[in-house]
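Researcher: Go.
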Amino acid sequence: MARQAHIRDLNHPYGDRLNPRKYTSRIMSVVKVTTTLPISWKEFEVGEWAHTFLTEGVVACVQIDKIRSMYYWESRANSEEEWRISITTDISILTQLIQSIESVHPYDTPQIIWSAVNSNENYSKWVKEAIK
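Model: Structure:
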């Protein structure tokens, strides 16, 4: 309990908004979905692929970056560059988004992982409004 009081007593411009316990009772509706695409794709192709989900109205935001993936596939260890696609959506549309990704993904066994995340109230509201 002393630690909790210490967090609230900080003279910080955000006050007790730094206190993660303040948000634990809130239902998490923002979901981050991550997948990867082949590095052989040009950046504009990756952008077009990701943009289809924006036009479908199943995502609020997409971020794209290059990464190094190390993984085990077909009885051997691999290491190669890939494109990481990080997608922000609302939990209410997660199933539809996953189905959309699976239907157009170039990999036989695509990585499609997701988790509910905490966010500030205004961002959560924006995500809900951005989804069609």
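Model: The CA atoms of residues 74 and 109 lie 12 Å apart.
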